[in-house]
Amino acid sequence: MQTQEIKSPRQKNTTKRTHKSGAGLYLNIYGLIIHCDIPSPELAAQMVRPFNYFLHPADEKPKAEITIRTEEIDPPYDQFPAISASFSTPRNIVFKGKDCKIIDYFGSGVIKEENNARLFTMYSRNVNFFQEAFYLLVISLFGQHCDRSKLLRIHALALSYNDTAILLPITPGGGKSTMAMAMMEEDDFKLISDDEPLLDKTGAINPFPIRIGTLDAEKISKIPEKYVYSIDRMEFGQKYFIDIEYWAEKLEKRPLKKSILFVSRRLLNGEPSIEPCSKWKALGTLVRDAVIGVGLYQGVEFLFSHSPLEVFSKIRLASGRFFMAYRLARRSQTFQISLSRNIPKNTEMFKSFIQNLPS
Questions:
Q1: Confidence (pLDDT) at 104
Q2: What is the pLDDT of residue 201?
Q3: Strand 228-233 relative to strand 237-243: parallel, antiparallel, unpaired?
Q4: Running along the chain, 359 residues long, what does each successive block of 10 average in pLDDT?
């Protein structure tokens, strides 16, 4: 992972959400309030950028549940306690002690967790590390908050059309970002989330707009530079991201009760198509994409525990998730979409189907 030069993104249009000091940033993500103690305004702007939609008004300082702090120095290994490694992942090694946890990203940076997971300190000189690790940490913490707050994350592209939420799970490489960007060029379509819409306990689909990512540089060629940035990721290399503000007028901001749920499959050859499918088949997709959460970042380094209580709580958690998924499948219209290797054709077929679907 290579270090990149820090460049400030554009200032937001709304003065209430414009921040001059990085140390005073607060995120309010569906009630999860995070204080971002980042002394450098330039670094703060880059790190918080995916979550600009959830920036708390600058003239207020709410009571934060969690603080994330940055130190732009080499990790002070000699100051850390003498604790042994608990486990490792492909991107890090986790050292767990009585009062703190140290997550070492193989020299790129370190995150120290202490004060019963209320304070996280990030050490690095690498801008890419700060951007990627901060994003993953916030997503992990928000995932835990969702489980406490009875919000169910669903790994799917979510669009709205005529007051209806459309949930479309697409596996990597299937053209999810292409379809999302194409649909926002059409009248009456809006974006709920590119990756993980939220189902609340009332049965409504809630927006979670953060950013749209792509590996294809061609997709960003016509988008103004001020809305685009890239990160050289720890495991997977460079990826481009588009600020959600680029589509500011095409964001769905309301919770929607009415929903259409798709089951997707990929074709090696053949024409794309859509046909009705059973609610049980749709539920099976939700078990994978929401109850288990395949494709959703879980942040195992921040969740790890072997205690019997933890195991029992996960069983209860899965039961709660399953009940919410069952209710969603039962009340949704359900279809199976077969996606070909021709992504533009998939997109056109999907658009035509939704536009001609009886209300």
A1: 95
A2: 94
A3: antiparallel
A4: 35 37 84 96 95 89 93 95 89 90 93 93 96 95 94 96 94 80 91 96 96 88 92 86 93 96 94 96 95 81 56 75 96 96 90 90
Q: Which of 334, 322, 259 is nearest to 288 (CA)?
A: 322
Tokens standing for residue 312: 């029992």
What integer pLDDT is reported at residue 16 of this predicted model? 37
CA dist 173 → 54, 167, 177 (Å): 28, 17, 9
45 vs 18: CA distance, rounded Å: 10
> Can you list the positions of beta strands (E) in the chain?
25-29, 32-37, 66-71, 85-88, 93-96, 100-104, 110-114, 119-123, 152-153, 157-161, 164-168, 189-193, 198-199, 205-206, 211-214, 228-233, 237-243, 259-266, 273-276, 333-339
For 311, left (φ over 0), alpha (ψ -120 to 50), or beta? Answer: alpha
Determine how β-strand 32-37 pairs with β-strand 93-96.
unpaired
Query: Phi then psi for 88, rounded to 5 degrees?
Result: -140, 155
Q: Measured in Å, how far apart are the chain's first and last C-alpha atoms?
A: 49
What CA–CA distance (Å, rounded) separates 206 from 203?
A: 9
- Would you mind telling me the total number of residues written for the chain in this entry? 359
Supply the DSSP symbol for 11. P
Q: Domain extents for the chain?
A: 17-148, 152-209+251-355
Contact 355, 274 (CB under 8 A): no
Report residue 269 as tokens. 């050859």
What is the b/e burial string over 262-279, where b = at least 16 CB atoms within 10 angstroms of the residue's CB?
bbbeeeeeeebebeebeb
Q: What is the pLDDT of residue 343?
A: 85
pTM given for the model: 0.88
| pLDDT in the model for residue 52 | 95
- At residue 104, what are phi and psi to the nearest 5 degrees? -100, 120
231: region left, alpha or beta (phi > 0 left; psi from -120 to 50 alpha): beta
The pLDDT value recorded for residue 11 is 33
Separation between Cα atoms, residue 45 and residue 229, nearest integer Å:
12
